[in-house]
């Protein structure tokens, strides 16, 4: 039993389970907007399973695809596969189970979610290879996370609408922006092994400027959501808080000082998604 528990803990460490906090709040937010109130417990349960299984599958696939590169990069050499804590075969089994669970969960929600599930998987798994041939891999990651609010809306209403598409666009811009910041740590490694990224293409200063532009655009899209979904002042206060958090994020990361990238990446962006979700739900509840 102890070995099984240790293995589970290792897998959760490998997939960075706490980082589920980035996209999941946007999915829940979208579900509440779609239901114009509280979704059913059944819907929320299967949305949660979809989110966790999809991200777990994507991270497992990423670790398998990047195993050789991770072993070469000093920043990632201590990850579970390069150090032998997990075998590629074990990771592949876990990934397969998560893929199956995602498709099953989509089927439990409704037929449209089930039909679109292979497309979602193609995007979230395919992202792992994009940095081998394009500088725009950050935007593909953004697209992968943007599926969360769109999928949650479909889970509740079984239809598409402009509101989740706008939320998805906001997530895409936000994710691409913070992933560009994170990628600044690997510029030298990317140059050495021939990988592609915006920091390598634009330089760190240029990449950080692009990231700031993307985050400013995200705030603009959230304001469009505010008007389009006819939300109230509580949601608007959430947008203002998001703006302040993103300003803080960019104030602590400088071209000549990347020592606080991890704080910007996890702490600030985790607060962005959780705070916006909470205030959106309160706004829906009080209107």
UniProtKB/TrEMBL annotation:
InterPro entries documented for this protein: Polyprenyltransferase_UbiA-li (IPR006371), Prenyltransferase (IPR039653), UbiA_prenyltransferase (IPR000537), UbiA_sf (IPR044878)
Secretion signal span: none
Gene Ontology cellular component annotations, sorted alphabetically: plasma membrane
EC assignment: 2.5.1.39
A GO MF term: 4-hydroxybenzoate polyprenyltransferase activity
Pfam family of the protein (one): UbiA
Membrane association type: Multi-pass membrane protein
Main location as per UniProt: membrane
Keyword annotations of the record: Cell inner membrane, Cell membrane, Membrane, Transferase, Transmembrane, Transmembrane helix, Ubiquinone biosynthesis
Cellular localization per UniProt: Membrane
One GO term of the biological process aspect: ubiquinone biosynthetic process
Cofactor section: Mg(2+)
Listed transmembrane segments: 21-38, 44-65, 86-105, 111-127, 139-156, 162-182, 202-227, 233-252, 264-286
Keyword hit for Cell membrane: yes
PANTHER family the UniProt entry points to: 4-HYDROXYBENZOATE POLYPRENYLTRANSFERASE, MITOCHONDRIAL, PRENYLTRANSFERASES
NCBIfam families for the chain: ubiA_other (TIGR01475)
Family per similarity comment: Belongs to the UbiA prenyltransferase family.
Protein name, UniProt field: 4-hydroxybenzoate polyprenyltransferase
Taxonomic path: Bacteria, Pseudomonadati, Candidatus Hydrogenedentota, Candidatus Abyssobacteria
């Amino acid at each position: 039993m102890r070995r099984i528990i240790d293995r589970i803990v290792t897998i959760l460490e490998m997939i960075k389970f706490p980082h589920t906090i980035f996209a999941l709040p946007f999915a829940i937010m979208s579900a509440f907007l779609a239901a114009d109130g509280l979704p059913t417990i059944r819907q929320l349960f299967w949305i949660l399973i979809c989110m966790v299984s999809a991200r777990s599958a994507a991270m497992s696939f990423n670790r398998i695809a990047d195993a050789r590169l991770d072993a070469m990069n000093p920043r990632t050499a201590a990850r579970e596969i390069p150090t032998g804590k997990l075998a590629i075969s074990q990771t592949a089994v876990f990934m397969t189970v998560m893929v199956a669970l995602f498709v099953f969960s989509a089927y439990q929600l409704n037929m449209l979610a089930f039909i679109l599930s292979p497309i979602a998987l193609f995007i979230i798994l395919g992202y792992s290879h994009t940095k081998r041939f394009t500088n725009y891999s950050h935007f593909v990651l953004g697209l992968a996370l943007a599926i969360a609010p769109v999928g949650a809306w479909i889970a509740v209403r079984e239809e598409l609408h402009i509101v989740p598409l706008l939320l998805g666009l906001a997530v895409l811009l936000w994710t691409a922006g913070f992933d560009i910041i994170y990628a600044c740590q690997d510029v030298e490694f990317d140059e050495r092994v021939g990988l592609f990224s915006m920091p390598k293409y634009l330089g760190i200063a240029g990449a950080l400027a692009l990231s700031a532009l993307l985050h400013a655009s995200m705030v603009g899209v959230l304001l469009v959501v505010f008007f389009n979904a006819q939300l109230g002042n509580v949601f608007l206060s959430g947008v203002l808080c998001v703006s302040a958090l993103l300003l803080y994020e960019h104030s602590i990361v400088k071209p000549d000082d990347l020592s606080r990238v991890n704080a910007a990446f996890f702490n600030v962006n985790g607060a962005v998604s959780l705070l916006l979700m909470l205030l959106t739900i309160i706004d829906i509840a009080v209107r």
